[in-house]
Amino acid sequence: MEMRIDFHTHIIPESFPDFAQKYGGERWPVLERTCTCGASIMVGGKNFRDVTDQVWSPEKRIADMDKEGVDIQVLSPIPVTFSYWAQPEHALEMAKIQNDFIAETVAKYPDRFVGLGTVPMQDGPTAIKEMERCVNELKLHGIEIGTNVNGQNLDHPSFIEFFQMAERWEVPIFIHPWETLGRDRMPNHNFMYTVGMPSETALAAATLLWSGIMEKFPKLKVCFAHGGGSFPYILPRLDKGWEVWPHLRQTTHPPSYYAKQFYFDSLNYDPLNIKYMIERFGHEKIFMGSDYPFLLREVVPGKVLDETLDLTEQQRLDMLGGNAAKFLNIGQEKRSDIYANSTNTRE
């Protein structure tokens, strides 16, 4: 039974308070409507990104899903709203608005959407408390976090308890690049998106491996956006560094040993890359993700998997939907209900 789950999609409420006016500061995102079907996300008075109603309208999304053959979208916040730089209580307010909106959207269309929440990572206890609310009260299926928090890599001691609780509670973590390294060298050509984000993701993945976090929390479920960025292709170099610098080792085994615990979305656009990732990590660790509804998204979702030759039927089905369902702890009964309902809806 084929079920297509688009693991990587972003959503934002159509309206939310002007935090820049409420709390001050130029880094708060503000949504300014430009027409009935579009808006601009403004940061510091500058246009960060133009968006269409696809980004807030579940009905528009469902129409696109039906057209493109997607059964379920996994909804996650837009990283610009993480607001890790803000006071924790202010960032928590922003997070709650989005988490509530995502939960409401899922509740309204439970056969078409699954939700991921966001938490204020700049304060560990607050992040853990909101994570607990997301999974226990709002019934969201995971948490999206950024690749760094105010320039601190993810092995900073202040994040250890968060990862510990995510493992204990079996909360899947989706790591998405933001505040990319080398931004001062990437103002031209939109390199922040095409070079900076893949490099930033690689740094986050390498940090979790080299620091021993994945060794310490072997059951922690972590997925990296954009096919892991450049991480899969520098992994042998990380192993070489581990080999030649024994005085820097913090793990029992080299990085590639623990990298097998990682998961990745399929958004790397090229069947050659998909084949490499299957060989390196196993097809079970890859699932479809499109980055809907932004310009760099894959159209149609799953295209790169459909174009990857020499896959078995089971591998294809797993990567299109089965692997994501397992990662997100969506039970078989619920999966069957979702599939049946979404199929009936499209008919």
From TrEMBL:
<dbReference type="GO" id="GO:0005829">
    <property type="term" value="C:cytosol"/>
</dbReference>
<dbReference type="InterPro" id="IPR006680">
    <property type="entry name" value="Amidohydro-rel"/>
</dbReference>
<dbReference type="GO" id="GO:0019748">
    <property type="term" value="P:secondary metabolic process"/>
</dbReference>
<keyword id="KW-0479">Metal-binding</keyword>
<dbReference type="GO" id="GO:0001760">
    <property type="term" value="F:aminocarboxymuconate-semialdehyde decarboxylase activity"/>
</dbReference>
<dbReference type="InterPro" id="IPR032466">
    <property type="entry name" value="Metal_Hydrolase"/>
</dbReference>
<comment type="similarity">
    <text>Belongs to the metallo-dependent hydrolases superfamily. ACMSD family.</text>
</comment>
<dbReference type="Pfam" id="PF04909">
    <property type="entry name" value="Amidohydro_2"/>
</dbReference>
<dbReference type="InterPro" id="IPR032465">
    <property type="entry name" value="ACMSD"/>
</dbReference>
<protein>
    <recommendedName>
        <fullName>2-amino-3-carboxymuconate-6-semialdehyde decarboxylase</fullName>
        <ecNumber>4.1.1.45</ecNumber>
    </recommendedName>
</protein>
<dbReference type="GO" id="GO:0016787">
    <property type="term" value="F:hydrolase activity"/>
</dbReference>
<keyword id="KW-0210">Decarboxylase</keyword>
<dbReference type="GO" id="GO:0046872">
    <property type="term" value="F:metal ion binding"/>
</dbReference>
<keyword id="KW-0862">Zinc</keyword>
<feature type="domain" description="Amidohydrolase-related">
    <location>
        <begin position="5"/>
        <end position="329"/>
    </location>
</feature>
<comment type="pathway">
    <text>Secondary metabolite metabolism; quinolate metabolism.</text>
</comment>
<keyword id="KW-0456">Lyase</keyword>
<comment type="subunit">
    <text>Monomer.</text>
</comment>
